[in-house]
Design goal:
single chain, Muramoyl-pentapeptide Carboxypeptidase, domain 1, two-stranded antiparallel sheet, Membrane-bound Lytic Murein Transglycosylase D, Chain A, 8-stranded mixed β-sheet, Aminopeptidase, 39% helix, alpha/beta, 429 residues, 3 domains
Length: 429
């Protein structure tokens, strides 16, 4: 049951504030705390929708806000309607409606039929903290706005949250982006979602993403994106997890194993206290030895490798889709450091360094070239060791994790350039 009341905080409150603002009841998004102006805006919104004006966001109020969070509504065509009048009435555009309804035109509107009407704002917010719920809403909105984007649940987290994958494109070359393996690196989720949106807009409008021919890339390459590998951990870090619930209490106990790591901002792991990017079968025993020597011998916020490779559902889901789809190139987004990791010890994919140099050139990031193994058991490590194909870990931005969403506009451009290079890599082959 969705319930937010006065005094609550965290990413779900920010989500409600975003919906209110988009609906025309601006609560002045300041600190993400429910109270004062936010409660007043909720009451005004409830009155406008014929709901009980109690100032609490329960199921009915949230459902009324939902279209402003997914970015679309469903409209029943009435007598005298045109696409232009519908767009004008609902804050959309004719182009948005036509894109979302490929078989509909002004000349075949039928009274009583349903139209998907996207609102004329970006469905990908980049100014609030993310949660697994916001991810689901954004992915739904993208798939409705751009019908060529498919959404698939490829696994479930420890706490049974969906692990979502987006897919777009028709080409035989398969490129995979993933983000938020680490909970307090959640800013990478809106990074990949914003990139998908920009790319999809370029495909729809038959334009270039700067120098990238979007139409040709769409025909030549299939893009797969898992925007949030670790939904439970992200919910913990951003305040979406209920603080009076059993799951939160269990994680507090695990955090007490390592009191020097700040809680919850220092949390990287999943809901079992396992670092997912140390849970892949790529010299996992060496990772275990390395981390145990450093004192990470039991579950906690970071650096615990698990009890065996792939003993966590999230890492199993990512490995399974990798085996099933057989990607040709992968990019894993992390933070921070402005670095690009391109190889796994002595495993050097053909062309991997050259492509990494292109990524470094367009982003200003440093392409690292370690002499020996410096880390083990990461997704990039497993993919390179298994397939000897290009795979990269990108450490986006600089600062202290979690990087502030307020600086998204500073961090995103370099990541965007890297993802463009990866996406268009096969265009010249």
């Amino acid at each position: 049951m969705f319930l937010i009341k006065e005094g609550d905080g965290g990413s779900l409150v920010q989500l409600v504030q975003l919906g209110l603002k988009r609906a025309g009841f601006d609560p002045l998004l300041i600190d993400g705390i429910f109270g004062g102006r936010t409660k007043s805006a909720v009451i005004d919104f409830q009155k406008s929708r014929g709901l009980s004006p109690d100032g609490i966001v329960g199921k009915n109020t949230f459902n009324a806000l939902r279209p402003f969070l997914t970015g679309y509504t469903v409209y029943t065509v009435q007598g005298g309607d045109s696409l232009y009048s519908i767009a004008n009435k609902l804050g959309s555009t004719v182009a948005l409606i036509e894109n979302a309804n490929p078989n509909v035109s002004q000349y075949n509107l039928r009274i009583g039929s349903s139209l998907i009407v996207p609102f004329n704002f970006s469905p990908v917010p980049t100014n609030i903290a993310y949660s697994s719920l916001l991810l689901e809403l954004v992915c739904e909105g993208l798939a409705v706005r751009f019908p060529f984007i498919s959404v698939e649940v490829v696994g479930r987290s420890v706490l049974d949250k969906p692990i979502i994958m987006l897919k777009m494109g028709k080409g035989e070359n398969k490129v995979f982006f993933n983000a938020s393996h680490h909970a307090n690196e959640w800013i990478t989720t809106p990074m990949v979602l914003k990139f998908v949106e920009e790319y999809a807009n370029s495909v729809v409008n038959a334009t270039y993403m700067d120098t990238v021919n979007a139409e040709y890339t769409f025909d030549n390459t299939t893009l797969y994106v898992v925007p949030m590998v670790n939904p439970d951990g992200v919910d913990l870090v951003t305040g979406a997890m209920e603080r009076d619930g059993e799951a939160y209490y269990d994680l507090v106990l695990l955090a007490n194993n390592y009191p020097s790591i700040p809680f919850p901002t220092g949390w990287k792991a999943n809901a079992k206290g396992v670092d997912l990017n140390l849970n892949y079968p790529a010299m996992w025993e060496q990772a275990k030895s390395q981390k145990f020597l450093a004192g990470f011998t039991k579950p906690g916020p970071a650096n615990f490798v698990g009890y065996a490779p792939l003993d966590q559902p999230e890492s199993r889901a990512i490995l399974n889709i990798s085996r099933e789809i057989m990607f040709d190139l992968t990019v894993s987004l992390h933070t921070q450091g402005e670095e690009i990791y391109w190889r796994f010890g002595s495993y050097q994919p053909e062309g991997g360094r050259e492509l990494g140099e292109k990524m470094a050139a367009v982003s200003g990031y440093t392409l690292t070239d370690p002499v020996e193994f410096q880390s083990f058991a990461g997704y990039k490590d497993w993919f390179i060791m298994t397939y000897l194909k290009p795979a990269y870990t990108i450490e986006a931005g600089r600062g202290v994790n979690p990087l502030p969403i307020e600086k998204f506009a500073d961090f995103y451009p370099a990541v965007r350039e890297i993802l463009k290079v990866a996406l268009s890599h096969f265009n010249n082959e």
